[in-house]
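Kindly go through one protein, given below as sequence and tokens. The question is how this chain folds according to its tokens.

***
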Amino acid sequence: MASVPSLASSLHQRIADALSAALPEAGAADPLLRRSDRADFQANGMLALAKKLKGNPRELAAKVVEAMQISASGAEPAGELIKDVEVSGPGFLNITITDEAIVKTLAARAADDRLGVPFAEAPGTTVIDYAQPNVAKEMHVGHLRNSVIGDAVVRILEFSGEKVVRRHHIGDWGTQFGMLIQFLIEHPHELDHEGEVSGEEAMSSLNRLYKASRTLFDSDEEFKARARRRVVDLQAGDEETLALWQRFVDESKIYFYSVFDKLDVEIRDEDIVGESGYNDMLAETCRLLEESGVAVRSNGALCVFFDDVKGPDGKPSPLIVQKSDGGFGYAATDLSAIRDRVGNLKADTLLYVVDARQSLHFKMVFETARRAGWLTEDVKAVQLGFGTVLGKDGKPFKTREGETVRLVDLLDEAIDRATAVVREKAQDLTEEQIAERGAQVGIGAVKYADLSTSVSRDYKFDLDQMVSLNGDTSVYLQYAFARIQSILRKAGEARPVAHPELALAPAERALGMHLDQFGENLAEVTASYEPHKLAGYLYQLASLYTTFYAECPVLKADTPQQVENRLFLCDLTARTLRQGMSLLGIRTPEQL
């Protein structure tokens, strides 16, 4: 597997070589190469260079153009890459690439399993914290984005060659477990069931038990006292109490996994390290912070203060690591997790896919960890703070009764809507296939709506729009992929073959130039953790393919070579769509 230099990088190198040859006194000058509407590319570097050399930019540009016509450093003649160079305005170079270079570069991409996309030059280890449900509680719409965004970022980073360690910091500790465990001790068969249970059944049992124990806790002072003593037993590591706590965790996992399975997000047991996983480190974390002077006692609580963080009253608002009653806050757990992830997991990067409303908390946690020396200059910590899922009315998504929407209900409705769309368009699909495709299209629609929005922005959850066949939706991309598969099936004896000797129609050129940018797009997305830029690239690819399909007959092209070349463009478009959608965690059915 070899990475394939893009047309832009080949051209950049050619101009840089020409600059060195024509203007050796310029040193290593940047040609400032950009995509252009006037030609394929424009190089804008002559202006800055003319200022530096105190020369005329058009005259300098003419010298560089002359040098570009000569074979640079034994490379192929300029004519194989560059069709035309025009000097315009104050020394801009408008450059058109040859059709031959486009097809040859695409052929090299097609010959590689990774479509010519290189691995990162210096991959490291990223620990990513995402998909954080709470034990014994239902997952709601607020759990959608961290799961979908986290899963896509994991896939993108792993494709780049990064070692990725997943961490699901589930809420599996706290005072409510005293209430639940004590109730189970006094009603020992409440979680009993024979054989396997579904996720819905597991959640139903947990819901029933939670409501019953909460009612008793609120109405019976003696039960409340017993429940509070049980919290102490839990924190002290009492074996019986821990065994019952584990039952709640296990029952909740049955439910979690059923929801993640429906969402088509893989969650593995070994990646779940909840709040409880850091219990043994909390006291030491506090001791180290206090001994180093990073944290100080204030009214009995262990706090870290910041000059730039003030409360509503204008007074300093600290990060509370340990409460005055000796209990540990979220900060103690998060700081212990950083110690573990950097010290034991050897992370270079810590990524947190967490609601943007937690940004002040994480800003203070990261700064505290830096002061304590746990986050060094070699380790970066990033919160991918995501926006809120809104209803069509632009307000946070709620049911008509004002309740938070259950995630599983949302996914089921998306699947139902998508199945209706698939059934309406279906040709030669069985009911079983329609149901399978409906799930893939529905879940893909939900994920794409999320991932095509910048992570930090809110977005409206509008199922009518999400499952539309038109516009910027995953359904549009999936149908483009399925259409190509249909053409390839109908091609009979004709096979996809690249023909660099053929002239390209405008729609073929536009599609080819965009296909060539896949690797560059992925490099940008990987560096910035912005999946919406990949979604945007894929939507543009599907749109350019739609134009190509309308303007360039494939199976009825003029010559057998043209049929093969257009089949080649179809095939590479499909492979790029499938790879890109896979990195977003979205399926591409072969037939719709």
Observations:
- Confidence is low (pLDDT under 50) at residues 71-75.
- The longest strand covers residues 82-88.
- Residues 239-262 form the longest helix (24 residues).
